[in-house]
Amino acid sequence: MNTPKDAAARRAIKPVICYPVDTLPVPDMAAYQNARAKMTKVDEVLVPPRDAGCFTVPAGHFFRIVSVEGAQVGDLNLWARDNLAERFYSGKTRALHGTHITTGQRMWTSFPYLRPMATITHDTLGWYGKDEFGGSVHDVIGTRCDPYTHHLLAGGQYHHCCHSNLTRALANHLGVPVAEAEPHVHDVLNVFMCTGFTRDTGQYFMKASPVRPGDYLEFYAEIDLLGALSACPGGDCSAEHSSDAAACYPLLVEIYAPEAGHMDAMTAPHVSGYDRSHG
Ligand SMILES: [Zn+2]
Predict the structure, then answer these.
(1) Helix 162-174 crosses helix 147-154 at what angle (to 10 degrees)?
(2) Residue 6 lies in a domain
(3) How far is the CA of 111 from the centre of ligand 1 (A)?
(4) Is residue 100 part of a domain?
């Protein structure tokens, strides 16, 4: 290997944050906390293990993803309810907030919209922080388990990866064939999943989720949302996914309405102000 003489000096250069977030609009967490203290559950969807379900959340409502029965990871897709072209952008959310997200951070939408679609308002796993392996929960680094990668690495036809579960759920919700629904499925927020990158090889790792029944991740819907949640065939993702080997449990989605008048002052975030002329 041709290591240059100044290799150590080059490596010693200090990193700078790609996207300093000092100029990001700050969510009004006090308003959210006020509203969530007086909200009422208006709907729920139970997502069966190794399957997915869809739900809608009006702007100004809250929703929770709740662990029930056993440790289980969920793969979440979100779209603007009336325009599926505007959807969760995992990569840019990662660039803005880092590899894992928690209370006070947001899920951002795709170009050319780039606006917050959901703000995390409570995370019962917020205590986890980062463990000794560099692992943390609720990542925006994984994609979703899918039958194509599974086929590439192991062969076979497995139909209950999150990608397929989300595709079937969306097809059912929209009343369209799976081929029409599939292109709308995108990289997820890995709810409750505990992941990181190994220090030596930089590989994506997972480990048993610290989630326990009763834990939940709660969001405020900044815009009208359509969601799809898959209860990953990996269960707590302690060993493997893309198979029926792991113990799997359902996940509960709960929708909450704030007390009348509580979130009235909040307006939906504007789409990006970039003029799209591209010079
Ligand atoms: Zn999965």
Answers:
(1) 150
(2) no
(3) 25
(4) yes
Spell out which residues have Cβ within 5 A of ligand 1, the ion: 145, 162, 232
* Contact residues for 249 (Cβ-Cβ < 8 A; gap 6+): 49, 67, 68, 69, 70, 71, 72, 231, 235
In-domain check, residue 265: no
pLDDT of residue 1: 82
Asked if 52 contacts 162 with a C-beta cutoff of 8 angstroms, the reply is yes
Contact, 213 vs 68, CB < 8 A?
yes
Find the domain containing 145 and state its range. 44-258
Q: Is 70 helix (H, G, I), strand (E, B) or coil?
A: coil
Q: In the predicted model, what is the mean pLDDT of residues 56-64?
A: 96
Distance in Å, CA 84 to ligand 1 centroid = 22
Q: Using CA atoms, how far apart are residues 89 and 110, in angstroms rounded to an integer? A: 5
Domain for residue 18, yes or no? no
**Given the structure tokens 């917050």, which residue do they identify?**
116
Residue type, 149: T
The strand pair at 216-221 and 116-123 is best described as antiparallel
Provide the pLDDT confidence category of residue 150 given band limits of 50, 70 and 90: very high
For CA atoms 239, 242, 246, 252, the dihedral sign is positive
Tokens of 94: 């990662």
Does residue 210 register a pLDDT over 80?
yes
Element housing 105 (H / E): none
Q: If you measure from the C-alpha of residue 267 to the centroid of ligand 1, how many angstroms do you get, rounded to a whole number?
A: 34
Check if the beta carbon of residue 187 is closer than 8 Å to that of residue 91: yes
> Looking at the 3D structure of the chain, how many domains does it have?
1
Query: Using CA atoms, how far apart are residues 80 and 271, in angstroms rounded to an integer?
Result: 12
Nearest to 258 by CA among 36, 104, 28: 36
Angle CA 45–33–256, to nearest 5? 20
- Compute the distance from residue 88 Cα to the ligand 1 centre, in Å: 17
